[in-house]
Amino acid sequence: MIPQELLYAKSHEWLKVDGENGTIGITHFAQEQLGDLTFVELPQEGDTFAAGDEFGSIESVKAASEMYAPVDCEVVAVNEALEDAPEKVNEDPYGDGWLMKVKITGPTDALLDAAAYEKVTEEDAH
């Protein structure tokens, strides 16, 4: 369940590139590791991040975890539906559970393709 068309960070965020814009979420693997989500803290529109910067946090019945920008970016929209329904990330991490839409301002070269990310999940699962 790793979409081939996306790019991935080792910290388990995904990036869907659409020209100079992108959509960011957390992977199926990440939401499965966290369990049932209870709260998602997202940035504000206009916030800027460098690749690797913390942009928000996510809490579940098991734990809280920080989320990191997979690429240099400026936030152009956040998924406000998650404020009332964080479980959307559990239900559809690559669809309705997206976290934010961004303008990509840096290279994506350091991100992983689906095959490389699958190896990361295999290592993290052990």
Keywords:
126 residues; alpha+beta; 9 strands
Description:
- With 126 residues, this protein is of the alpha+beta class.
- The protein contains four helices and nine strands.
- It has helices at residues 28-34, 81-84, 87-91, 114-124; strands at residues 7-8, 13-18, 21-26, 37-41, 48-49, 54-60, 64-68, 73-78, 100-104.
- The strands form two sheets. Strands 1-2-3-9-8-5 form a six-stranded antiparallel sheet. It has a three-stranded antiparallel sheet with strand order 4-6-7.
- The longest helix has 11 residues, at 114-124.
- The two termini are 18 Å apart.
Helix content: 10-25%
Tell me the number of helical segments per DSSP (H or I, 4 or more residues long): 4
Order of helices and strands: EEEHEEEEEHHEH
Helix/strand-derived category reads alpha+beta
The count of DSSP E runs of length 2 or more, i.e. the number of strands, is 9
pLDDT < 50 stretches: none
Largest sheet: 6 strands, antiparallel
Q: Average the pLDDT over all residues and give the rounded result.
A: 96
Shape label: globular
Q: Please tell me how large the radius of gyration is.
A: 13 Å
Instruction: Kindly report how far apart the N and C termini lie.
Output: 18 Å
Order of strands across the main sheet: 1-2-3-9-8-5
Percentage of residues in strands: 25-35%
